[in-house]
Amino acid sequence: MSSRALGIGLLVGVTFLAPCVSLPGPCSLLCAPALAQDDMPVEVDTTFERKTSVSRFWIIYVGGDQSYRMTNKVHQRYQRLWPFLSRGTKIHLVTKKGWITTMQRGWKTRGKTDTEGVIKKIRSCQEGDRVEIDGREHLFLRASETHMSAAPKLPGEAGFGDERKFLITSVRNFKVLDKRQTTTEQPLGPDTLDVFKVAVGDTVAVFMGKDEKPLTGAFSKLGPKAAELREWTSEGWGGSRRLLRRQVTKVRHVPLERKDSFELRGGKLELTVEHYRRSVEGPMEIKVSVVHDVPSKIMTGLRLRMNLSEAVGSASTPDAEEITLVPALFAGERHRISHTVIHSRYSDVLVRPEESKLLDFSDPQAMPQVLRQIDLGPELGFLTQLYVGVGSTKEPRVLGLLINRALYPPTRADEVPEEHARAARKGLQAAGQDAVQMILDQIEVTAKKLKLVALVSGELRDDVLPESIPAEEHRQSLIKLLGRLRGAVSEETAQRLFNISVQQPALTKAVERAFAFQPEHAAGVLLSEAVPRDGEGFKEREERANTLLHDLADKVIDLLPPLVAKRGAPVEELRQAIVAHGNDDPGKAVDVALRLAREGVKALRRQAYEEKVKEARELRKKLEWEKSLRLLEEVLKAQPNHKEANALLGSVQVGLANSLAARGYRGDAIEMLERAVKAKEPAARKPLGRLLLEVLREECEGVILRKAPQVGANKIATVTPATRYPGKSAKKPGWIEVDTGSTAAYVQADSARVENGTAVFSPTAPEARVAALAARARELEPNLAAPADKALGTFLAGLAEAEYNLGNYSKAYGLLSERVAELAPDEPRLSLKSRAWLFANLWLILGTLVALGGGGGVLYWLIQREQERKARN
Fold this sequence. Notes:
Number of helices: 27
Number of strands: 34
Shape: elongated
Structural class: alpha+beta
């Protein structure tokens, strides 16, 4: 195909298709009126309806459901004309390809057409006249200032078709063929449908007689003699019914309602749709009501698709669609939508939900919407639902808001504060123990840390406690709130509240009131606290519990018998006391309960201790040393003088120490044996001495890095002064933690120091520590004296050798001659003793020799001089 042919094809396509291009925005459902196939201007006499701005141009709506486009430039040209145009004003337009080029107010006679004559003929017609419009026979129905309605004659003898509307100024040829016809089916003058101005697609209730039930639906056809009504049921459109116009006695325009239910996960979505159409009043109106019943869920992103159709009952195959977005929807919240369809030609609608999500209140997307809804202050029933929903999320700041509103409810003039507080308490109950723990934490914090969580403009904000609310009063309100929350005062909560009353005596009365609301678990806690326990420091608690029990006597008296029975005491005496004093002096019954409980607890404790000692003995036989030791320590903690437990303790400690040593935990074994020796267990002395001898021999080698900060912990490496590792003070005093790169190691602080984060090691372990280890080994086991002395002698020989190498010959000689020779006579390094003595006394020897040499020289000189004198004489 040549480029010229392609260009001609495109030009023809644009010429024929441009008038029917859909307009954007509000005009997406409109189509521009058909134009002549050439580019000649078209003149139109019509009436002005309204105008709308769409991006870069304007849309001018005129009579006959038509519209034209106008550029901004042309619109600006007629800016002085617009104030004088209102709905129904006659205007004359010159259009080209659907665009208005010229506009003026009033109509203009076109060519030789007698417009005024046509109008006069139309005005003279009555309903039922047979007329000819532009060459085709019609049945005249009615006329207004600008429009005329008529029904075209169908081919053959089929009668007349549906009503059509004509713009009067567009009618070129009009002729009256015959005046109104009178037949039995065509009444003279306007019938009921005309009187009520019924049109095709109107939603109506049709009455056929006084006693007959009206028919509801919409007219799908309106003929001159009969009409076709599409009936409406609760489920939608039903069948069609043909009605004679003369049979209709009354018509009422009514909305048609339809209810649909759609299954959701955990509930359902209910959709109620009403559509109402009365052509003379305007386009179809749609009212939608939507609600879901999924508890503690928010529906977001719900889209309602409205299928619109021109024919009645054809919305399942729509001519157009419109989408409406529904805001976030809470369970039980009914959202209503009122919508007017932009074009009057649509007469049926089908609404269906699309693309919705159900979110938990805890969802990050849902919580801001919930808080905004709460901030709006909805009615109390819906607010309670919101409080329960957010409470179930257990989010701490939300619980803080509920606590604030349960204590200090923000109420409107038409609300009772207690009702709002009750709604907030229901939200806290939904949170369960999380809310209880948060309230208890608030009670226990200092006054400076007390705060209130407020809701401001849909956002949570932490505020300090106002000065108008004293801290003690706020704490008392929190305790009272706990008492009002059903099931909040559990055994654990009652115990914490009692502890609070002991720590803060000013809150005792508030705790008493909370216990009075829910005494079930409080009675057991108070009875346990009032019974004396082994050990010291419980007297104040016993007195406080005793006082509370007497203050709550009338509330707890009936709860005491089973609680006393659990403590191993007979309750017959208590039951008699309740009968005798329950009404006039319940405190006496409480005294009886306390006495019986104390006696029962003592007996139970003795029995429990005996059982534990017996079990520990059996565990020792099975070599389960750790479990056995744990039981014995529990008994001795409660009764330090328990004979059987003390007698069994030492042997269990020795057995556990031997087990630890065998498994490579020498440091733990040494500590356990030290405890056994302290407990005067003779069997612990020998194994402890042997383990200390092993440690002594390791210490003689040099400075040792160990796996744990314990004397005798397993050895990792021996280090020298040249070794460098990162180091810091260990948590255990007297030790330094060293990072070897592969693991953490520990060295005693008397063998190293930390300088600028680096551990600097000594050449050897301190002599005093090594000597102490040797002395401890000799003390524990006399048979270990020889090896301990030998190890100490070897260590001292090493020190002497180091001193010898440093030139400290006197110190080296002293160590070798006085201590090494005594402790380790076969030590090879004793050979250094003579050399050390020689070097230590070298200057003395040399001085002596020099002195002797000098004295001999002087003597020789004197002798020679005496001989010379004698020779001279």
